[in-house]
Amino acid sequence: MTSLSARRVSPRRFLQLSLLAVAALAVVIVSGAFVRLTGSGLGCEDWPNCGQTVLPESGGHALIEFGNRVVSLLGILATLVVWLAARRTPGLSRGIRRVALAAFLGTVAQAPLGGITVLLDLHPLAVMSHFLLALVVVALAIVVALEAWRLDRHAAVASTPGWLRATAACGVAACAVMVVTGAVATASGPHPGDSSDVKRLGLQISDTVYVHVRATAVFGIGLLLVGAWLIRSRSLVPHAARLGAFPFQPVAAGRGNAAQGAGRCPARGPAHPLDQ
User: Fold this and answer.
1) Do residues 227 and 244 make contact, with C-beta atoms less than 8 angstroms apart?
2) What is the pTM assigned to this prediction?
3) Mean model confidence pLDDT for the chain
4) Cβ distance 134 to 30 under 8 Å?
5) 4, part of any domain
């Protein structure tokens, strides 16, 4: 009888598990945005308990915050399963297995970081760190899912021109600047998740939004140009054009800028993830 540790995971099953993990982590981010939008960040005023007990003693904000904690546990379990499956999936490189492990450890780290955020009464730097780590974990999970997709379809690793790799590295850096400046902008002024006793960074909201809008424009235009080139040159870089998310960038940017211009931050909501 084959032991559990010796069982292999098929590429198709590994792809399914990795996609499930990405979906679970996305739900974690959306539930966190819901916590912020409803002003429920301090619904449980301590951690790991929610009041005097582990379970919430009252409804409303406490239930919303507790629900986010439960969803986060599901994210931890999903990334754990993917990491264990990666160790038993033939054909995966050691690097991808390490990425799966990093995604799991990052998800685990979210729990104490969330507790620190609560204990610091939602200090904006703690909230920003909590949110940015969540995005890093999702990015790692997507990398694993893309490799699982390639393995399931027996696709060879395409030879990518050096200039395209450099362009991708610049794109990652531009995306990081866009996300961080957005987090700083949101933490600099009021938004629908705030109450009067929640601290903000104290920076001028007009200045931080000015920087963020331009960072978003640089990233969005660059992504559209590269995406258009990949579609036109898909014979040179097989499969790459299908994996981009460039059609969604103008939607997110448009929603964020329109809401800012109209003075209606709630319109951003979970559809614009930088609500913290």
Assistant:
1) yes
2) 0.75
3) 78
4) no
5) no
